[in-house]
Design a protein that fits this description.
The chain has about 400 residues and is an alpha/beta fold. The protein contains twelve helices and 19 strands. Helix 1 runs parallel beside helix 2 and helix 11 packs across helix 12. The chain is elongated, with a radius of gyration of 27 Å.
């Protein structure tokens, strides 16, 4: 049986205010084309279909389009809820849409209720574990420890109990969690609230293939335990990652072969660091002129209108940091520099450091008045030029 393992679509998410809906739609096109070209028999979506519990209308429409197109191909889909999804909303009418071959697993109580798909070698039992919240499940499942390890271990105990009644059946488990050994990115929401965050890989021992979601980089923790990663980059920490899906072949005795299918890249990412004038003139950076960029300036003094000037050469620059050469020594001495200074002096100094030049007379008056207002002083702001002073 040929499976396509994907996860973490995060439909509705933007990239530093850049709309990604068109790029996400292109991934859906790619996904459907891959299913047809590679003769995929089962699609797995391991959580975080949406980026938030209340997704935008356009994101919901895109998810509906994707599932409708897959259902039209008569290819079964198993889809689980991630920590970004609203499990109840995602699971709405799940029994109804299961008739079309789209199986949603959003309720932890359904973890041991497999979707059974059959090929020439017999049945494959697919267990969809949605995101398991320790705070909620520890009490309802009567567990002695509140942790992701505890709730996942209990879910897998239930899975194995069901598998015991299915001798010789090949098994697939989908789980949206952080398995020990997986490397996180900046774009993932922390799931450590409510207990210990990581789950050891041995919790999934004995399963033919484990299709993981949550971490956004593709990763292999064991031949049969993998993260597909997100189909698009959602932070600059993913600049060196290759996005896509896993194409998994199960033979008569279990896992046989896995290939990676690269996803389309809407725009490459890049990191630049250096002095402003060098970045604007160095021909070595020509290949980054069409990339989404995070740029760190190292000029000793913050250049005026830096982002505006950078975008003349790099129109897709999105993030600007400032890390002046020799700045570490300066940062280490801030406590000494601020000792004994008044609030007004500190505020004026802050503006000068950020902007690179002292405040002028009019700005100083506004800053002084603002500080007085914050302290609750009774102050009289000067009337605008030409206004009636009565």
């Amino acid at each position: 049986m040929r499976l396509l393992h994907t996860s973490d679509w995060h439909l509705g998410r933007s990239f530093h205010r850049e709309d990604l809906l068109e790029a996400q739609a292109a991934f859906v096109d790619h996904l459907v084309e891959t299913v047809v070209r590679e003769q995929v028999q089962l699609v797995l979506v391991s959580g975080d279909v949406y980026d938030r519990a209340l997704p935008p209308v356009d994101a919901v429409a895109l998810a509906s389009t994707a599932l409708t197109r897959l259902a039209a191909l008569r290819v079964p889909v198993v889809l689980t809820a991630g920590n970004h999804d609203s499990a109840r909303r995602l699971g709405f009418a799940s029994e109804l849409i299961a008739a079309a071959g789209v199986h949603v697993r959003s309720d932890p109580e359904d973890a041991a209720r497999p979707v059974v798909v059959t090929d020439a070698h017999g049945p494959v039992a697919v267990y969809g574990l949605p995101y398991l919240e320790p705070e909620t499940l520890t009490r309802s499942w009567g567990l002695g420890q509140r942790s992701h390890r505890a709730v996942t271990t209990e879910a897998m105990r239930r899975v194995r109990a069901d598998l015991a009644d299915r001798p010789g059946v090949r098994s697939v488990v989908m789980a949206h969690t952080w398995v020990t050994g997986g490397a996180p990115c900046d774009s993932e929401r922390d799931i450590s609230v409510g207990g210990v965050s990581q789950v050891p890989a041995e919790v999934f021992d004995g399963i033919d293939y484990v299709a993981l979601g949550h971490l956004h980089g593709r990763q292999q923790l064991a031949p049969g335990i993998r993260y597909s990663g997100s189909p698009l980059a959602y932070s600059f920490s993913e600049v060196h990652q290759h996005k896509g899906s896993w194409l998994v072949d199960l033979g008569p005795r279990g896992l046989e072969h896995v290939d990676f299918v690269p996803a389309p890249v809407p725009r490459p990412l890049g990191l630049l660091r250096g002095r402003l004038d060098d970045l604007l003139t160095d021909p070595a950076h020509a290949d980054l002129e069409r990339s989404w960029l995070q740029i760190t300036l190292t000029d000793r003094q913050r250049p005026a209108a830096a982002m505006e000037r950078l975008r003349r050469r790099f129109p897709h620059a999105l993030v600007l940091h400032f890390d002046p050469e020799g700045g570490q020594a300066s940062r280490q001495s801030w406590a000494r520099k601020l000792r004994g200074r008044t609030d007004v002096e500190v505020v004026r100094d802050f503006v000068e450091v950020v902007r690179g030049r002292p405040v002028d007379r009019a700005e100083a008056g506004l800053l002084d008045a603002a500080c007085s207002e914050c302290r609750g002083d009774v102050i009289a702001f000067p009337a605008p030029h030409g206004a009636d002073s009565a």
